[in-house]
Each structure stands twice: as structure tokens, then as C-alpha cells.
Design a protein that fits this description.
The chain is built from 16 helices and 2 strands. It is mainly alpha-helical. The protein has a two-stranded antiparallel ribbon with strand order 1-2.
């Protein structure tokens, strides 16, 4: 079936171009959404393109929110932004349920690589974000969002990208897990130091908020994994799907909430977020190679540094009551990193890993 969707996608795109030419861009929303979704399904036909399936489908979600924002902002007085934090907790629970206590043993087995990875995670992206925010000329709250996403821990999608890139998957899982568990301490401190000039940061409150969003559900997931490991294949198979749907819904709601602001400052913010993302990959890889890490581990750290937990950053911006300003950078960063990460992973998958 995927093969047929791949063949249909070009025709849907041509129809979209025709509608834009005749009726204007505003009338073409549903067709553009359909194109991205059809293409996303179609890309699953070939194994070498499979990694792009989810990122391309997310572009359809973004198009849906941009063209029809009112449907995803409020339903009968209920603001859909209230779903963001529960969805993040579900995703964090899913992450915890895929881990076991043995996964953390890698810290003792390879402390140097883990230490370097954690140092790079919480130094490179926050400082790059701070630099970009200061030269951006954007509204202070929007600029603070760039720093916020830079201070976030690694995203769970990085583990998949590490596998595709022939990187060290065990190290990737360990770095994502450790950086996530450290986030309640590191994120508020970094935000206070780097973003305090842009927005007011309540250090203790932010620590408690992140603790509730991350540590409680991850801990619950670890307990469930310990109790049911190997006993419930349904849970093991369904949690990744639930997590992907959760990510899509978060992006949908955040993009809809900040749609007008994105249209006003979109091009500048997109360029800055893209730079932030690409510099994360580049500096992470260059730093790792400079200090003598092997190629496989350097790829891992590059992906871990460049791919952030944008959903967590969005959740915090929502708690701050600034989803339409501070939440803009995370809203752009999330879909973008999925696309760039897939491209980078595909590029590395075709290059042999140096043994030096």
C-alpha cells in the first residue's frame, strides 16, 4: 500500500499547485496537508527512506495547524494547551517503560564518554542559544524561547537517529536518560543564568514543575517495566506509537496557539532555530573528535547535542503562560530537528564508521 501512496504523492502536489494558482494559498490548506501525509506514508515503502516518514508526516501536522488554527486552540471553552503537559508526561512514562536499571550501568562501563556527552549536552546548546538570542533582535520573550530549547535535555528521537546513523545506540540511550533525569536541576539553573535578562525565572518553581513533568512519569515507567518486562508485549509495542501520536498532538496544539506570531516573525525565527540545530550537530561532533573520541561515539554526541526535548521546552513555556512567545522556538525546533536529524542519519548511514 505504501508504494501506491508514494506514486500518488506527486499528483497531489500538482493538484495543490493548481489550486494555489487558481484560488490562492488560503484555499489550498487541506490539499497541502493531504500531500504531506500521503508522502509520509509512501516513504515507508523503501527502507532507505523510512526514517523520513514520521518527520514528513509532522510537516502535515504543522500545515494543518497553520491553515486551520482555530480548530486546535479551544473546544467548547476548553483550551487545548492544557493537554500539553499531560501528553509530555505520557511520553516520559513511555520513555521510562522502555528503560531498565541495567541501562544505567553503561555509566560505570563507559564513564568518560557519558561524562563528555552530558557536559556537551548542557554547555553547547545553551551557550549557542544564548548567543543567538542576544543577536536576534527578537522580542525578549521570543528570544528566551531559543535559550529554553537549548537548555532542554536530549530528545527521545535521538536514539532512533543514532541507530540509523550507525552510532553508539547504547551511549545514546544512556545520554538521553541521564540528561533527562538531570534536567530538573540543570534547566532552571541554566535558564536563570542565561535567560534571566529576558524573562523572570522562579528557580524553585521551575525545578518542581520539571520534576512533575519528567521524574515522576519516568520513575513510574521504570517501575512498570521492572514489573511487567517480557509479560506484556502489547504495552511494549503500543508505547512507541502512543509517544509518536503524543509528539504530533503537542506540535499541533503549540503551532496553532502561536500561529499568528509565527507568521509575523517566522522567517527570522526559522533561520535562527535552524542555525541552533545545525550548530548543535556540528559543534558536538567537532568537539568530540577534537578531544579524541572515536567516530561512532562522536556521531552519537553530535545527534544527542543537536536533538533536544522540544516538547519539554514547550510544556515549560505553557506553565509560564507564554506559549505564544517563549513557546515559539520550541514549536519550530521540534519538527525541524526531526527533518535535519533524519537527513544527517541517512548521510552517516551510507558512510563506513572509522575505527580510529
Amino acid at each position: 500500500m505504501s508504494k501506491h501512496f508514494l506514486r500518488i504523492a506527486p499528483f497531489v502536489f500538482l493538484i495543490w499547485l493548481g489550486v494555489v494558482g487558481i484560488f490562492g494559498l488560503e484555499s489550498s490548506g487541506w490539499i497541502l496537508v493531504l500531500f504531506w501525509l500521503v508522502l509520509g506514508i509512501g516513504l515507508r515503502y523503501k527502507s532507505e527512506f523510512k526514517a523520513f516518514s514520521f518527520p514528513v508526516s509532522i510537516l502535515g501536522v504543522v500545515a494543518l495547524a497553520m491553515f486551520f488554527p482555530t480548530y486546535f486552540q479551544e473546544i467548547k471553552g476548553f483550551k487545548l494547551t492544557q493537554l500539553i503537559n499531560p501528553l509530555i508526561q505520557v511520553i516520559m512514562f513511555g520513555m521510562g517503560a522502555t528503560l531498565s536499571w541495567k541501562d544505567f550501568a553503561a555509566v560505570a562501563q563507559n564513564p568518560k564518554s557519558v561524562g563528555i556527552g552530558i557536559f556537551a549536552q548542557f554547555m553547547i546548546m545553551p551557550l549557542v542559544g544564548f548567543g543567538l538570542a542576544n543577536v536576534s533582535g527578537l522580542d525578549p520573550e521570543v528570544a528566551a524561547g531559543i535559550i529554553l530549547v537549548g537548555c532542554a535535555p536530549g530528545g527521545t528521537a535521538s536514539n532512533v537517529m543514532a541507530f540509523l546513523a550507525k552510532a553508539n545506540v547504547a551511549l545514546s540511550v544512556t545520554l538521553t536518560s541521564i540528561s533527562t533525569l538531570l534536567a530538573p536541576l540543570t534547566m532552571p539553573i541554566l535558564m536563570k543564568l542565561l535567560a534571566g535578562q529576558f524573562i523572570e525565572i522562579d528557580l524553585l518553581k521551575m525545578m518542581w514543575d520539571i520534576f512533575k513533568i519528567i521524574l515522576l512519569p519516568v520513575g513510574a515507567g521504570l517501575v512498570v517495566n521492572h514489573l511487567l518486562r517480557g509479560k506484556s508485549s502489547f504495552i511494549e509495542k503500543s508505547l512507541p506509537v502512543v509517544s509518536m501520536l503524543g509528539i504530533a498532538l503537542i506540535i499541533l496544539v503549540i503551532t496553532a496557539a502561536g500561529r499568528d506570531s509565527l507568521l509575523a516573525i517566522g522567517p527570522i525565527l526559522i533561520v535562527l532555530v535552524l542555525l541552533h540545530n545545525l550548530l548543535g550537530y556540528g559543534v558536538g561532533y567537532g568537539f568530540s573528535r577534537l578531544i579524541g573520541m572515536k567516530e561512532q561515539d562522536a556521531r552519537t554526541i553530535a545527534i544527542e547535542v543537536g536533538m533536544q526535548n522540544a516538547g519539554l521546552a514547550s510544556g515549560l513555556s505553557n506553565i509560564l503562560g507564554k506559549i505564544a512567545t517563549v513557546g515559539l522556538a520550541p514549536a519550530v525546533f521540534g519538527p525541524m530537528q526531526n527533518v535535519t536529524g533524519s537527513v544527517l542519519a541517512t548521510f552517516w548511514s551510507r558512510k563506513e564508521v572509522s575505527k580510529k
